[in-house]
Design goal:
CATH architecture of the largest domain: 3-Layer(aba) Sandwich
Number of helices: 6
Shape: globular
Structural class: alpha+beta
Bound molecules: zinc ion
Order of helices and strands: EEEEEHEHHEEHEHEHEEEEEEEEE
Number of strands: 19
CATH topology of the largest domain: Aminopeptidase
Largest sheet: 13 strands, mixed
Number of domains: 2
Radius of gyration: 20 Å
Distance between the termini: 52 Å
Strand content: 35-45%
């Protein structure tokens, strides 16, 4: 039998579910800016997994993934503890914005500090109450606005435990990604907690296929950690990508892509063009090698050098 789980000022008994609000700061109006958390504390001791969404306030599909995962987790049968955080950045969520009121990106503000700016305080609160109480984490994102991503997990694939965790998630692609300064993943990794970042779909949209893959992925990752009692069948074995590269607009103008997220491309293949507003002086965009399109721009208006296609390449890719 597990011990009661302490979070914020709540003690959660084993085999029960509790919702709390972690108070991050107050807005100038006096309105509290808090982080809602649902704790599902299993009867039996085990790993503590957090799943977080809307760290970037406009990347909302993780919210729906969290909801669907919670529907499928029975506290009576759970081994360990699930900390479900559907909205980390409530301000950005309401504003339909990636950022906080001071224009800061919360995912560049970790580990934060108790006496810093609003972003630093929220990051600090999240680390203290969620990361430090967890053994593993999954942070749910989408592409940034005006872009779309193929469903993928990003993790440090050179770390054996993180790699097994990423493969268990079973998204179509697992991408080796170095951690970014100030990101939640970097902060958690420094504390020795394996973290997956899931990326899929677009900001401000629910994409049913991305949500299905994300929900199934979280459940499979929980299964891998021994938190669930029934074995799930792996949805797919991910293609493991060690490298990826953004192709950029060769000129300013109007972008027309002839490929899209999920397509495989061959070396030298023309993937689109950028022309002037009359359709003249088109400059082609060519694939540098064999790969898979894992991200794309959705906005046709581009400046020279804008990122337009994200191509992952694989050592073991067939055909
Ligand atoms: Zn994001």
């Amino acid at each position: 039998m597990a011990e009661p789980f302490l979070i914020g000022d709540a003690w959660v008994p084993p085999g029960s579910v509790r919702e709390i609000e972690l108070l991050g700061a107050r807005l100038p109006t006096g309105t509290p800016l808090s982080i809602p958390v649902r704790i599902v504390h299993g009867k039996r001791e085990g790993p503590v997994l957090w799943i977080s969404a809307c760290l970037h306030g406009d990347e909302i599909s993780g919210l729906e993934i969290v909801r669907q995962v919670l529907q499928r987790v029975d506290p009576g049968r759970l081994r360990g503890t699930l900390l479900a955080v559907p909205i980390v950045n409530a301000y950005g969520f309401l504003q339909q914005s990636r950022y906080l009121p001071d224009g800061r990106d919360l995912n560049r503000s970790f580990p934060g500090s108790a006496r810093g700016s609003l972003a630093a305080r929220l990051a600090h609160l999240f680390v203290r109450e969620i990361v430090d109480r967890s053994t593993h984490g999954i942070d749910l994102h989408t592409a940034t606005r005006h872009r779309s991503n193929l469903a993928q997990v990003r993790a440090d694939l050179e770390d054996e435990e993180a790699r097994a965790f990423a493969e268990a998630f079973g998204a179509p692609v697992a991408l080796h990604a170095r951690t970014r300064d100030g990101s939640l993943r970097e902060s958690a990794a420094r504390r020795g907690k394996p973290v997956l970042v899931f990326e899929g779909g677009e900001a401000l949209r629910f994409d049913p296929e991305v949500i299905r893959i994300g929900t199934q992925g979280v459940l499979q990752a929980m299964d891998h950690l021994g938190m669930l009692q029934r074995k799930r069948r792996l949805q797919s074995t991910p293609l493991v990508a060690r490298r990826s590269e953004w192709l950029r607009a060769p000129r300013s103008g109007i972008l027309r892509l002839t490929t899209k997220v999920g397509a495989t491309v061959e070396s030298g293949q023309i993937l689109g063009e950028v022309s002037d507003p009359f359709g003249e002086n088109a400059a082609p965009i060519r694939a540098p090698g064999h790969g898979l399109v894992i991200g794309q721009a959705l906005l046709p208006t581009v400046h020279q050098g804008d990122a337009v296609l994200h191509i992952a390449s694989f050592d073991d890719m067939r055909g």
